[in-house]
Amino acid sequence: MRQLIHKFFSRLIDYVFYRPRTFGPRLVGFGVAIILATIGVSWIAKLSYRSSDAEWSFAVSTGDSVSQFLSNFAYCIGALLIAIGLVVYLLDFWRESRKNSRQIAIVVELRGLHLSPDTPAKDADLGPLPSNRNWVLLDFRPSAEGERVSPKLLLQKLSTLRSSVETLSAGRDSSDVSVAVGGLAAVPALFLAGMLLEDESRIAIYDWDRNTGHWRGIDGPDDSHRTLPLDVSELTLNQDEVVLAVSLSYPVDIPAVRKAFPGISVSHLQAVLLRTDVYWSEEKQRAIAASFRDAIQQLMEKGIRRIHLVLASPASLAIRLGTTYDERLMPELLVYQYERTDPVPYPWAVRMPDHGNAIPVAICTLTGAPI
C-alpha cells in the first residue's frame, strides 16, 4: 500500500511540476499542490489492531494538526496562485493565437510530369508549418502521355515564382513567413526553383513518398551514407568547362553523357549508396548539398568557368542543391534534362542565372542556341 501511495504522489508531482511548459500552468500546479498539502496535514488518521480478540479500530480527526488561521491562509494562497496561473495561461494563449494568425506558410508545388500526383501538397503533413497556408501551384505538365516537357512553358511558369512569394508575404515580418517547396518535375525546373528561393530565410523542402502515396516533409533518420570523393581524373590543364555528373539516386548514364558532350571532360560525384528512398533525412540532404558545393569549388580551383550538370537525384534533393548554388560567385551552370530514348540523351538544358545573366534561358544541346 505504501508503495502504491508513493507512486501515486510521485506521478502527481511529476504531472504538476514538470509536464507544464509555460509559467501559467506552473502557478496552477503550485496552487493545487499547496491546497492538497494543507488538506493532507489537516487530517489525521489512526489505525489500531488487537490480536487477542481480533479487534480493529479506525479513527479520523481534523483541525488539531494545523491552526484554522494557517489552514485558511494556505487555502487562500493556493487559490490565488491558481487564479493568477489561469490568467497568465489565458494571456499566453491569446498571444500565441495572435502570433499564429500572423504566421503563414507559402506552399510551392511544381507539377511538371504527366503522371504527377493531383493531391494538393498544401493539405499534406509537411512538418511544423503554420496552419494558415497559401498555395502557389506551378503546373507545366505535358498534356498527353509520351509528350515531352516544354522548356519554354517551364521557364514561363517559374518566372512568376519569386513575385508570387513576395506578393503573398508582403507586409509581414520575415519571421512570420515560412516557405515550403517540392513537387515532381524536370530536373532543371527543380534546381531552378531552389535557386530562386535560396534567399528565403525559412524554407522547408518536401517530396512525394512513393511507398505511402503521400507528400511528406524531409523528416527521416540519417543513415550516415554520404558521397565518394569527386573524380577529377579526366581534367587537364587549360580547360574552362566540364561535365559534372552527379549520381545520387541512380547512376548517371556516362556513355550517354559522352555521346551528348563529345570532347568535354567528365567529373563524377557519386553517392556511396545509390537509392531513391534513402534521402528522407534533413541532415543527410544538407551533407550531400555540402559535398556538391565542395565539388563546385574544387572545379573552380582548377580553372573551370562553365559547368554542364547532369543530375540523377530525388526531386527534393535537386531543389536543395539549387539552394546551395551561389549565382554571384560560382561558374556558369547549365542543368540538363535526361531523355533516355532521345537521339541526344540530354537534348536541352536551362542556363541558370549568374552574375552576368540574371534571367534563366533554355538552351538546345545540339546547337547551343536558346530554344
Automatic annotation (TrEMBL):
Native organism: Achromobacter marplatensis
SMODS-associated and fused to various effectors domain location: 171-352
Name of protein: SMODS-associated and fused to various effectors domain-containing protein
Membrane spanning stretches: 27-49, 69-91, 177-197
UniProt keyword annotations, A-Z: Membrane, Transmembrane, Transmembrane helix
Tagged with keyword Signal: no
Residues of the SAVED-fused 2TM effector domain: 4-152
Domain of life where this protein originates: Bacteria
Entry annotated with the keyword Cell membrane: no
